[in-house]
Every structure is written in structure tokens, then in C-alpha cells.
Amino acid sequence: MMPDLGKYVVEVLSAYAVSIVLLLGLVWISVRAARKARETLAAVEARKEKRDG
Q: Which residue range forms the structural domain that includes residue 48?
């Protein structure tokens, strides 16, 4: 299943690992930002409801 990478096996596998870590980091940052935006929006809407009565 795995192709023969010869003397570059460490470099290729390291590049895959770094890519996966970076992608997971981007996903984590995006999810965190979405949660914060949702909380902020809920707070703003609650204040608006309270003000408008």
C-alpha cells in the first residue's frame, strides 16, 4: 500500500505529519472563532430583546 520512498521516507512522512497538524490547527481555530461569534451574537440579541421589551 505504501510506495517505496527510499532515502526520503523521513522527509515525506514529516511533511505529511506537519500538514495534518496545520490542518487540525486551522479547524480548531475556526471552531473556536465560531463559538465565540455565536456567544457574542447571543449576548447582543439578549440585550436587544431586553431593550425592546
A: 26-53
